[in-house]
Amino acid sequence: MKFIFVSILAMVLSSAAIAGNSSFTGQLQSGMQGDHRSESNQARDQYRHPAETLALFGIEDGMTVMEIWPGGGWYTEILAPAMRDHGKLIIATWDPQVEGQPSYRYELPKKMEENFADDPEVYDQVEVAYFSPPDSPSLGDAESVDAIVTFRNTHGWIGAGQAQEIFNEFARVLKPGGILGVVQHRAEEDSDPEVSAKNGYVSESAVKEIAAKAGFVFEAASEVNANPKDTKDHPKGVWTLPPGYALDDEDRAMYAAIGESDRMTLRFRKAP
Known about the structure:
Number of domains: 1
Shape: globular
Distance between the termini: 38 Å
Oligomer: single chain
Strand content: 15-25%
CATH architecture: 3-Layer(aba) Sandwich
Strand order of the largest sheet: 3-2-1-4-5-7-6
Largest sheet: 7 strands, mixed
CATH topology: Rossmann fold
Number of strands: 7
Radius of gyration: 18 Å
CATH class: Alpha Beta
């Protein structure tokens, strides 16, 4: 009952935020329904709730927004058309000049470049920055960005021992009063983040502690991306669940029924 109440409350608050920014909401909905999005990516909307998530983060017209490590660009393909002529979107992806990174860090940005070239009417205003700390550790000029958003990346930073350094960089590049929006696979509160991160999960308290040490103030949370079906004890961690299906066809129907992971959705603000 408590979970249901919190989820309903989060939906009401998100709806109120969306209503308060109707212009951007219209742009966002157009982006979500665009022909540049594949059916498989659109099918994930039911798990990732992009409109409600970005409403909680307070993304608005005219902002300079930086997306950290967009991977395959699932959120980029929604944000890019929504912000086109209505602000600036910067994607901070892996630096191809840094050697020794996992292969996907070279392959995914290259694929995104191809997508950008295929759909200039969507992506022609997107700016690209490179960010592969510790070799490529800067996100740009200090106090130059209104909002930073990052989706399902924090476990990797904790696993690499870089989380505090990276959150500190977020604080440096954000303007006073700037927003940090975080979505992350959620571990149980009594878990050790260095252990749980290996399976892709991190507790809310661990994320809040890292953010606080970087100078951020926690402002709001939503349960819009929560999933009580996720038991968080899967054979290959969070990657067992869709869309990864790390076990291939083994028990695929069972994991499909669970859906994507249980996720926290948090908004922080840099002190004015």
